[in-house]
Amino acid sequence: MSQSVEVxxxxxxxxxxxxxxxxxxxxxxxxxxxxxxxxxxxATQIIKWIHQMGVCDLDQMTNLSKDLREKLKDIVQISLPExxxxxxxxxxxxxxxxxxxxxxxxxMGYIP
Length: 112
Known about the structure:
DNA polymerase, domain 1, 29% helix, alpha+beta
C-alpha cells in the first residue's frame, strides 16, 4: 500500500525567539549589550527606564538612539509575567499564580 504526502513550501522565515530583558541581572544585561556590539552603560539606561520609570516600550526610551531602539525591537522584548490566578483569604492573605517565560508557573504570596 502506498501513501502520498503533499509538501507545501513556504517563504516564511522561522520566528526568532526574542530575548526578554527582564530575565537579566545588571551584570548579565551589560554582557548582553557587549555581545550585540553596544557599550555596557546601555544596561544601566535600560534598567532605569524599566525599574525606575516603569517604561517597557522601547520607543519611549528617548536617551537611546533611534537606531539602537530599532535594533533592539528586532531581538528583544520586555515581557512582564502573566498573573494566571489570584486568591484572597478572609485574613488578608493573598496568593498569586504567575506564568513566566518558558511556560513555567510560580506561586507568590502576601501575608499581612
